[in-house]
């Protein structure tokens, strides 16, 4: 296994039991059995490795999303989060700078914007569509965070449906050319 993957595995393992903000580089090194020099060969600090891990998660969440409807994209995302429930419950506890909550919010805006631009006739979002998207993503993340912190009791398909139901009409009117 390569060193980067060992470090990602360490972040994941540690993140299941303690808040990300409390994890130190030393904790990561000890869990990964990696030297400090090897760590700094790949990452600048703990936030760098954690953000790279988050990015890997987002890549996995949105992989093949062109094959889904909006509701399918939401359900697929929720299913991924639920399959790593302990980790995401801990990561959603942090808020503010360098938190997963803020990272997730900015990535969703980017991913949803890209989905619209790539899979519709839109070459860009209008100012009103951008506002609607930001408004929606803020609520989306808040709802997902609450769901994660309360043990993800609502079934993913039901929550995916709810999230689609509450999508602003301005965004729903954009026809996507998705496979399913």
From TrEMBL:
Which residue numbers delimit the HTH tetR-type domain?
1-61
Pfam families assigned to the protein according to its UniProt record, in alphabetical order: TetR_C_8, TetR_N
Q: Which UniProt keywords apply?
A: DNA-binding
Gene3D superfamilies in the cross-refs: Tetracycline Repressor, domain 2
Look up the DNA-binding region in the UniProt entry and give its residue ranges. 24-43
* Domain of life according to the entry: Bacteria
Protein's recorded name: TetR/AcrR family transcriptional regulator
Q: Which organism is it from?
A: Levilactobacillus fujinensis
